[in-house]
């Protein structure tokens, strides 16, 4: 079970005061060859999204790039803690191979522990870690469309989406496992992310070439 209590609760309560003012911009990643809609917050963490054009299925590529001062960072696709997919990523501490990973979660109450969420499947495309920071790039099938007690949501063809983040400098208990427990966050924020910049006709090529190289998936 994940050791987290009011960590994401504050995201909703204090969303306006903690909202990020950064505007999204296009970012080309020279390692993966993928172009993202990218936002970098004042804490140095970047959240990047790539989408196909005129998608009929919930499909996206997400990249989280963090300075080494944070051990984990999470992205809430619905802009708050509960009833939306949470992409929680961290450095594994490995010096080669899988250097970062992502854990699929969803919380069903503000004081409930976020549970593994099987509605989103991740395919890792690239991971990195240096003394300066870590990053993960992964395809997510299920992050941009979900159903919960709040209703039915589909961001896939929206022009923008309200997203939220949370970060902590305390490492997960078992960094090599995406089912690891981890502690509450130390920072959080909310922002409106431009999704029009995320759409690209090369999306199918990106996921095909990357998936052929790795072939691994994380579910929950």
Strand content: 35-45%
Show unreliable segments. Answer: 1-21
Count of helical regions: 3
Number of domains: 1
Q: What would you give as the CATH superfamily? A: Cellobiose dehydrogenase, cytochrome domain
User: Could you say what the CATH architecture is?
Assistant: Sandwich
What is the CATH class name?
Mainly Beta
**How confident is the prediction overall: mean pLDDT?**
86
The CA-CA distance between the termini, in Å, is 12 Å
Radius of gyration (CA) equals 16 Å
Instruction: Classify the fold: give the CATH topology.
Output: Immunoglobulin-like
Q: Helix/strand/pairing class, anyone?
A: mainly beta
User: What is the assembly state of the chains in this entry?
Assistant: single chain
Can you tell me the overall shape?
globular
Keywords: Signal
Protein name: CBD9-like protein
InterPro entries: Cellobiose_DH-like_cyt
Pfam families: CDH-cyt (PF16010)
């Amino acid at each position: 079970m994940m050791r987290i209590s009011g960590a994401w609760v504050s995201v909703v309560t204090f969303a306006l005061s903690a909202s990020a003012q950064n505007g999204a911009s296009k970012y080309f990643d020279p390692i993966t060859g993928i172009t993202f809609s990218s936002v970098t917050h004042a804490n140095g963490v970047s959240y990047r999204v790539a989408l196909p054009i005129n998608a009929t299925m919930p499909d996206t590529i997400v990249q989280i790039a963090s300075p080494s001062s944070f051990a984990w960072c999470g992205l809430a696709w619905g802009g708050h803690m509960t009833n939306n997919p949470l992409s929680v990523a961290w450095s594994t501490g490995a010096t080669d191979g899988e250097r970062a990973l992502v854990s699929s979660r969803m919380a069903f109450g503000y004081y409930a522990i976020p549970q593994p969420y099987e509605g989103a499947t991740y395919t890792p495309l690239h991971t990195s870690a240096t003394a300066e920071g870590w990053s993960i790039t992964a395809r997510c099938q299920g992050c941009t469309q979900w159903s919960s007690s709040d209703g039915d949501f589909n961001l896939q063809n929206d022009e923008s989406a309200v997203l939220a983040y949370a970060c902590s400098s305390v490492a997960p208990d078992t960094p090599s496992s995406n089912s690891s427990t981890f502690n509450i966050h130390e920072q959080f924020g909310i922002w409106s992310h431009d999704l029009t910049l995320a759409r690209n006709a090369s999306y199918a090529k990106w996921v095909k070439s990357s998936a052929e190289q790795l072939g691994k998936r994380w579910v929950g």
